[in-house]
TrEMBL record:
The family this protein is said to belong to: Belongs to the ABC transporter superfamily.
Organism: Mucilaginibacter hurinus
Protein name as catalogued: ABC transporter ATP-binding protein
SUPFAM superfamilies xrefs: P-loop containing nucleoside triphosphate hydrolases (SSF52540)
InterPro entries cross-referenced by the UniProt entry: AAA+_ATPase, ABC_transporter-like_ATP-bd, ABC_transporter-like_CS, ABC_transporter_ATP-binding, P-loop_NTPase
Classification via Pfam families: ABC_tran
GO function term, MF aspect, one: ATP binding
Length: 254
């Protein structure tokens, strides 16, 4: 069955003055997948994401999101996507429950805060302020806010940066649950292990260009069948596995 495309990026270019941050990028995101934009710092991931989100102007190229062009239908796109807010957007005097009420109101819809908080295991923090949350809780709350308008697609920009191993793994499970419930997820990361376990397909971006797009398994199989061998025998577990085994997999940030 042919996969349905929900995002099409065609020949995207973004220049900041003389500097070309994005150089002729093209890719598609399929409905219902977790799609990863991978690359080192400065590769152009955030710039690409913000242009798709209609938050930043492009220099040239074409983009469609759920059938709408960023050039002519930015408002329709905004209604269909969920974007993580920067921390500064969370009014300091409101608690989590009040913030969800506020954001629902801005979207013109009614959402029960407890229902949203339950999706991200934060019901016991309903009366807490954002600044009182741990790093993992903050990420979960901001993911909850992306879901308020029942979006078709959510965008997560490096959602696990700075989190401990338990919080990261649990956030991966949460993101997979969101995909399994029918929402397409676009994520940026520079953690390759994260992309390998989380993403259905990845695009590697380097120096403002796409240097490869495929599933993690296909990428690895192709590399291995080309004769590539790791210099050392791969260990069957790593130190992070040992740590998780010793300390358990529960949320540690409650
Ligand atoms: N507003 C801006 N003005 C000028 N240059 C910018 C601007 N925003 C980003 N850049 C530059 O564009 C390049 C791509 O930045 P971008 O933030 O998209 O990269 P990234 O892949 O998301 O990296 P990171 O992982 O560090 O966030 C970088 O060299 C950055 O310095």
């Amino acid at each position: 069955m042919k996969k349905q495309s929900v995002i099409t990026v065609k020949n995207l270019v973004k220049n900041y003055g003389d500097f070309a941050a994005v150089k002729d990028i093209s890719f598609e995101v399929y409905e219902g997948e977790i799609f990863g934009l991978l690359g080192p710092n400065g590769a152009g991931k955030t710039t690409t994401l913000e242009i798709i989100e209609t938050l930043r102007d492009k220099t040239s190229g074409e983009i469609w999101v759920d059938g709408f062009s960023v050039d002519t239908d930015a408002d329709s796109i905004k209604q269909r996507i969920g974007v993580q807010l920067q921390a500064a957007g969370y009014y300091p005097n409101l608690n989590l429950s009040e913030l969800i009420d506020l954001f629902s109101g801005l979207y013109g819809i009614t959402k029960t805060p407890m229902e949203m908080l339950q999706k991200v295991a934060l019901t016991d923090k309903a009366k807490a302020k954002y600044k009182q949350l741990s790093g993992g809780q903050k990420q979960r709350f901001s993911i909850a806010t992306t879901l308020i308008n029942n979006p078709r697609i959510i965008f997560l920009d490096e959602p696990t940066t700075g989190l401990d191993p338990q919080a990261r793994r649990n956030l991966w499970d949460l993101i997979k649950e969101i995909r399994d419930a029918g929402t397409t997820v676009v994520i940026t990361t520079h953690y390759m292990d994260e992309a390998e376990v989380l993403c259905d397909r990845v695009a590697f971006i380097d120096g403002g260009k796409v240097v490869g797009i495929d599933t993690p398994d296909n990428f690895i199989d192709k590399l291995v069948s080309s004769g590539f061998e790791r210099p050392k025998q791969v260990k069957l577990a790593n130190l992070e596995d040992v740590f998780i085994n010793l300390t358990g997999k529960n949320w540690r940030d409650e």
